[in-house]
Write a structure and sequence with these properties.
The complex is a heterodimer.
Chain A lengths: L1 H27 L5 H6 L6 H10 L6 H13 L12 H36 L4 H15 L2 H15 L13 H31 L2 H8 L4 H39 L4 H11 L2 H29 L1 H6 L1
Helix pairs in contact in A: 1-12, 5-6, 5-8, 5-10, 5-11, 6-8, 7-8, 7-10, 8-10, 9-10, 10-11, 10-12, 11-12
Chain B lengths: L19 H5 L10 H10 L2 H18 L37 H37 L1 H15 L3 H11 L5 H10 L2 H16 L2 H8 L4 H12 L2 H23 L11 H8 L8 H28 L1 H6 L1
Classes of the chains: A mainly alpha, B mainly alpha.
Protein name (chain A): ABC transporter permease
Family (chain A): Belongs to the binding-protein-dependent transport system permease family.
Main location (chain A): membrane
Chain lengths: 309, 315
């Protein structure tokens, strides 16, 4: 078990460096001279340029520049925004909000998705299943962007059920609707995933054995069918952290939430490249960490995987 | 096994008097059936397939000849007097903030959205196919390098990566958006092709081709690739929808197609400013977007069922 953990963590290291190198390369190896761009039409003296180049390590080879960037990143130095705030300070304010939003969304999609998917899978071919399939297909094809605007307009502007824009502190009860919006697509995927996996497990030998040895239906369903059907769902939840972060950019933009997504949204629309990059780099790291966590969880849930290698 | 008593036991089945020719006879008049004919037969009978196919053909038609569907120009004749005006004769869906006809803009916006979707899918599938096939077929260090490289690109959520790349690119058009979307998604295609190729390359027909002296590269092209392309087709169909959504998301953020290009994403992005007073100019492009995505998702679903007999039996 521990060997598996260790191996997975070790495998992460090259991917981590590769991914940060990729992001760094995209931003800093592109055409254009950042120092000259600072001065516009009147280029300064060559000595000024050289000094600035030296200060920002631009006279060093690419890989050395990357080294400065990555060590800065590891020390928590993410640079500053255009308005002079340190990116790390903005993150400290933004992350708790987005974390609450993401947890709400994950809770909603996991609980509702698994319940609907389970019922659907157990009653394959019945009316409930048919409705669930059609509704989930529609939900998957309506982008978060659209769901967000439509619900904001209907509930917020037209019927005044909620406040169309979340207040600055983002109290949790105001985050419920944005969280549901954020989770819709994933909810639909989880319904379909759970349904497929439940209906497959229903005809598995171990379920027949469990029924044959006289276990109650409830016990067969909850312990034997559900537990085994949850494995792909949990993997999906891990991958979904990535979708949620992208969705958060849109959702937080729509509902005016000042979380990580909202900050990225504003930085993108204002054209603040460096801020976008620092935030996205951190989001990628979170995504990778979540994937690692899910892989480890996977090994705990399914003993077959542990001993496979 | 009683090895000392060889004469007493028959280890060979009793002789069958049927001549070999009769056993091996193949009904030559029967049409040869490939996996593709089987798939087509199952597709033909599925109503979902026809619904999605008709929808997609219609959407393609709108994208190619928008003039067929509206006589109103989406850009000329916009009148600020009609800013956010409600529907009236000749303008069934009302007007945008700039006073342009919403229906015409939805119709004309199809092309850009679909172009990005199709272009991204083609690049995604081609790159994935080539890289996945080469990695799976030749194996060894090439496979290791390519797979690790894929891991790195895969570790960046595709739209997040696209946001970074698009926000620093000096120029933006349909091709760059499609390329950027493909950059962070190709590992998905490559993985799926690689898996299928690894399975196919050890099969009997590859072995017999090898025995006949067919060159390695020719085997890859003639036998391995055609037999491992099915999962990629399914993935590509489903991905087309998500590429269209991704384009809309990027355009919504203002870093997708330039604002001058008519696309659903741009129209949604421009309509959000006046959503409280005129929600409908946001609603209609959104509906068009969703229907398109739905059509490709449905097609992907039925194609998967048709190409994967195991899933069909399970249903």
């Amino acid at each position: 078990m521990w060997w598996y953990f260790l191996r997975r963590v070790l495998q992460m290291i090259p991917v981590f460096f590769g991914a940060t190198l990729l992001i760094y390369f995209m931003v800093f190896a592109l055409p254009g001279d950042p120092i000259r761009a600072l001065f516009g039409d009147h280029p300064p003296a060559q000595s000024v340029i050289d000094t600035l180049r030296h200060r920002y390590h631009l006279d060093q080879p690419f890989i050395v520049q990357y080294w400065y960037y990555i060590t800065g990143l590891l020390r928590g130095d993410f640079g500053t925004t255009y308005s002079g705030q340190r990116v790390i300070d903005v993150m400290k304010q933004a992350f708790p909000i987005t974390a609450r939003l993401a947890v709400l969304a994950l809770l909603f999609e996991a609980v509702a998705g698994i319940v609907v998917g389970l019922i659907s899978g157990l009653r394959k071919g019945k009316i409930f299943d048919g409705v669930a399939l059609v509704v989930s297909l529609i939900l998957i094809s309506v982008p978060v962007l659209v769901t967000g605007f439509v619900l904001q307009f209907l509930l917020g502007v037209k019927w005044h059920v909620i406040n169309p824009s979340v207040s600055p502190g983002a109290p949790t009860q105001q985050l419920i609707l944005p969280a549901i919006v954020l989770a819709t697509v994933s909810f639909a995927y989880i319904v379909r995933l759970t349904r497929a996996s439940v209906s497959e497990n229903m005809s598995a030998d171990f379920v027949r054995t469990a029924t044959a040895k006289g276990l109650t239906r409830t016990r067969v369903v909850t312990v034997h069918i559900l537990r085994n059907s949850l494995i792909p769902v949990i993997t999906y939840l891990g991958v979904d952290i990535g979708n949620l972060m992208v969705g958060a950019i849109v959702t937080e933009g729509i509902f005016n939430i000042h979380g990580v997504g909202g900050t990225v949204y504003q930085a993108v629309t204002r054209g603040e490249g460096p801020t976008v990059v620092s935030f996205v780099a951190v989001m990628v790291l979170i995504f990778m960490a979540a994937n690692l966590l899910v892989d480890l969880l996977y090994a705990v849930l399914d003993p077959r995987i542990r001993y496979a290698k | 096994m009683p090895s000392n008593d060889m004469t007493a036991t028959h280890y060979v089945a009793p002789l069958d008097e049927t001549p070999l020719v009769a056993v091996d006879r193949v009904d030559e008049s029967a049409k040869t059936r490939s996996a593709w004919t089987d798939a087509w037969d199952s597709l033909r009978t599925s109503p979902m397939f026809w619904i999605s196919a008709v929808l997609i053909v219609l959407i393609l038609l709108v994208a190619i000849v928008p003039q067929l569907f509206t006589h109103t120009s989406p850009t000329l004749g916009c009148d600020l007097d009609f800013s956010n005006a409600s529907p009236r004769a000749g303008h069934p869906l009302g007007f945008t903030r700039q006073g342009c006809d919403v229906y015409a803009r939805v119709i004309y916006g199809t092309r850009a959205s679909l172009t990005v979707g199709i272009l991204a899918t083609v690049i995604f599938a081609l790159v994935g196919l080539i890289i996945g096939a080469v990695a799976g077929y030749y194996g060894g260090w090439l496979d290791a390098v390519v797979s690790r490289l894929g891991d790195i690109f895969f570790s960046v959520p595709s739209v997040l990566g696209a946001i970074v790349l698009m926000s620093v690119l000096p120029f933006r058009n349909a091709t760059t958006v499609a390329l950027v979307l493909a950059v962070f998604t190709w590992p998905q295609a490559a993985r799926i092709v690689r898996g299928a190729v690894v399975l196919a390359k050890n099969s009997d027909y590859v072995l017999s081709a090898k025995a006949l002296g067919v060159s390695r590269f020719k085997i890859l092209l003639r036998h391995v690739v055609p037999n491992s392309i099915a999962p990629l087709i399914v993935l590509a169909t489903v991905s087309l929808g998500s590429f269209i959504v991704a384009e809309a998301t990027l355009s919504f953020l203002g870093i997708g197609l330039p604002p001058s290009v008519m696309s659903w994403g741009n129209d949604i992005s421009q309509a959000q400013a006046s959503i409280r007073t005129a929600p409908m100019s946001l609603f209609y492009p959104a509906v068009a977007l969703s229907i398109t995505v739905l059509a490709f998702l449905m097609l992907g679903d039925v194609v998967r069922d048709a190409l994967d007999p195991k899933a069909r039996a399970n249903r």
